[in-house]
Design brief:
494 residues; alpha+beta; Outer membrane efflux proteins (OEP); five-stranded antiparallel beta sheet
C-alpha cells in the first residue's frame, strides 16, 4: 500500500514497541544455591502444608516418626529434579503460544523519484505498502493440536518422574531398615555364638573338648562380627541414599529411630518360643526376635489384570502415546503445507497530485516443491514414535510378568524359611525340656539357640527380598500396592 501518512506509520511502530516483552536478567549464584540446599530441613511449614494438602491434617509437626508416605511427599516437594520436569512442562506449554500465533502483516516504505517531472511538480512520490498473510488448510489448528499433545506428554512425564521418586525413596527406605534389622539380628546371633564358645572353652579347660572343637565356633563368631560391621556400614550408606532420594543434605535427615516402618513404629514383639527364657548357664538370654518383617498384602490381581492396569495407567506409556499423537498431527501439518498461503496486498499512493490505490492477491505456486521432503520426514517420525510405543508396551508386559514371577518366588522362599525357623524353634523348646530332665547338655541347647539365631537372619533375608519383589511389581505396574509400607507383622508359629 502506498500512502502519505508517515505519522500513522510512526504511531503504529511506537505502539508495537510498547507491547514488547523486556529482558529480565536472573544470574545464578552457585554458592548461594549450595548454601540454600545445605539449609534444607523437613520441619518447614511449607512442607507441612504440602503434606496436609495431599494427605490430610498432621497433628504433630514435625512428626515424631516419619512414615514412607510422608517421606515420599517430602521428596516430591523438595527434590530439584522435579523442578526440572516442571520447568520442561512450562517450556512446552509456552510453545503453545508460539503455535497459536498468527503471522503478522508486513509494512514497507517505497519512496519513488521521478527524473523528468512536469514543471512545478515535486519529483518525489511517497508511499506505504501493506501485506496481510492468510494461512490456509488449517495449519494453525494443526500447530496448536501438536503443541497441546506435547504438553500432555510433558505433564505425564512429571508423573513418571514422581513415581521414580517414590521408587527411589522406597528402595533406600527398605535398605535402611534391612541394614538396621540385620545388625540387630546379627548382634543376637553373635551373643548366642559367644555363649556357645564360652561353654566350649569351659569344657576345653576341663579337658572335655579339643582345639578342633573350638575352631569352628571361633570362625563363626569372627564371620558374624564381620557381617555385623558390614551391616552398620550399609546402614550409613542407606541413610545417605535416602537423604539423596528425598533431596536433603544428610545432616538434615532424622535418625533411624524417627522412621516408622509399620503401624506400631516397627516395634515387633517376640513369639512365645523366643521370649526371654532361663538360660542353662543361669540368668537370662537375649530373646531372639521373631520375624520383624511385614506381611505384604498379595496383589489383588493376576497377570492379565496386572498387565491391563499397567498398559492403561502407566504414565510413561500414556506420554509415549501422546507423543505419537503429536507426531501424527505434525504429519497432518506438513501435508497441509502443500497448499500455499495467500497474501493480501493493498496500497495507496499520492503520485504528484494524483491519488492511486491498488489491491493485490498473491500465492506461492507449488510447482517445483510440493513439500515432499518434510512430509517424508514427518512420516518417518510417526513410524519411529509408533515403534517406541510398541517397544515400551512389550517392555512393560515383560516387566509385569517378571515381577509377578519374582513376587511369587519370593513368597515361596519366605514360606520355606518360615517353616525352617518354626522347626528350629520347636527343636530349641524340645532341647530345653530335655535339659531340665537331664537328658542333654547345656551346650546342646546353646548350639541350637545359635542355629535359631542364624535361621532368624535367613528368614529375614527372605522376607526383605519379598518386600523388594513387591516394590519391583509396584514399579512395573506404577500402582501403589503398599501405599505406606504399613504392613502387619507376621507372627511365627509357636
Amino acid at each position: 500500500m502506498r500512502t502519505t501518512c508517515p505519522g500513522f506509520l510512526l504511531a503504529a511502530l511506537w505502539l508495537a514497541a510498547a507491547g514488547c516483552a523486556h529482558f529480565d536478567p536472573k544470574p545464578l549464584d552457585v554458592a548461594r544455591m549450595a548454601d540454600d540446599f545445605d539449609a534444607r530441613t523437613l520441619d518447614t511449614p511449607e512442607l507441612r502444608a504440602f503434606i496436609e494438602t495431599n494427605r490430610g491434617p498432621v497433628s504433630v509437626w514435625p512428626p515424631a516418626s516419619w512414615n514412607f508416605d510422608q517421606l515420599t511427599l517430602a521428596a516430591l516437594f523438595l527434590h530439584p529434579r522435579l523442578d526440572v520436569a516442571r520447568a520442561e512442562l512450562a517450556s512446552v506449554r509456552a510453545a503453545e503460544i508460539t503455535a497459536g500465533a498468527r503471522p503478522n502483516p508486513t509494512v514497507g516504505v517505497a519512496p519513488e523519484y521521478n527524473f523528468n517531472p512536469a514543471g512545478g511538480v515535486t519529483p518525489w512520490i511517497a508511499g506505504l505498502q501493506f501485506d496481510l498473510p492468510i494461512e490456509t488448510a488449517g495449519k494453525r489448528g494443526h500447530r496448536l493440536a501438536k503443541a497441546r499433545q506435547l504438553s500432555d506428554a510433558a505433564r505425564l512425564r512429571i508423573g513418571t518422574v514422581a513415581w521414580e521418586f517414590r521408587s527411589g525413596v522406597r528402595a533406600a527406605w527398605l535398605d535402611l531398615h534391612d541394614a538396621g534389622q540385620r545388625a540387630e539380628l546379627l548382634s543376637l546371633q553373635l551373643t548366642a555364638q559367644q555363649r556357645t564358645l564360652a561353654a566350649l572353652e569351659t569344657k576345653f579347660s576341663l579337658g572335655a573338648a579339643t582345639t578342633s572343637d573350638l575352631a569352628p565356633a571361633r570362625l563363626a563368631r569372627a564371620r558374624t562380627r564381620k557381617e555385623l560391621a558390614d551391616a552398620r556400614v550399609l546402614s550409613d550408606e542407606a541413610r545417605a541414599r535416602l537423604a539423596s532420594a528425598i533431596g536433603l543434605p544428610l545432616k538434615s535427615l532424622p535418625p533411624s529411630t524417627a522412621f516408622k516402618f509399620a503401624n506400631a513404629a516397627m516395634d515387633v514383639g517376640t513369639t512365645e518360643a523366643t521370649q526371654r527364657a532361663p538360660s542353662p548357664l543361669g540368668g537370662e538370654r537375649a530373646g531372639v526376635r521373631a520375624d520383624s518383617a511385614f506381611t505384604p498384602t498379595p496383589p489383588p490381581f493376576n497377570s492379565p489384570t496386572a498387565r491391563h492396569r499397567a498398559l492403561t495407567s502407566r504414565t510413561d506409556l500414556l506420554a509415549s502415546l501422546a507423543e505419537y499423537a503429536a507426531a501424527e498431527t505434525a504429519l497432518q501439518l506438513e501435508v497441509a503445507k502443500q497448499y500455499p498461503d495467500l497474501h493480501l496486498g493493498t496500497g495507496y499512493q499520492f503520485d504528484q497530485g494524483e491519488n492511486k490505490w491498488a489491491l493485490g492477491l498473491s500465492a506461492e505456486i507449488p510447482v517445483l516443491n510440493r513439500n515432499r521432503g518434510p512430509i517424508a520426514e514427518a512420516q518417518a517420525r510417526r513410524a519411529e514414535a509408533a515403534a517406541r510405543v510398541l517397544a515400551l508396551q512389550a517392555r512393560i508386559i515383560g516387566d509385569v510378568d517378571r515381577a509377578l514371577a519374582a513376587w511369587h518366588g519370593a513368597q515361596t522362599r519366605s514360606g520355606a524359611m518360615e517353616e525352617v525357623r518354626a522347626e528350629q524353634q520347636a527343636r530349641v523348646q524340645s532341647l530345653q525340656t530335655q535339659l531340665q530332665a537331664g537328658a542333654v547338655e547345656s551346650l546342646d541347647v546353646l548350639a541350637a539357640e545359635a542355629e535359631l539365631a542364624a535361621d532368624e537372619l535367613f528368614h529375614w533375608e527372605a522376607r526383605i527380598k519379598e518386600l523388594r519383589a513387591l516394590g519391583e511389581l509396584e514399579d512395573a505396574i506404577q500402582f501403589p500396592l503398599t501405599p505406606d509400607l504399613s504392613l502387619n507383622p507376621r507372627r511365627s508359629a509357636p
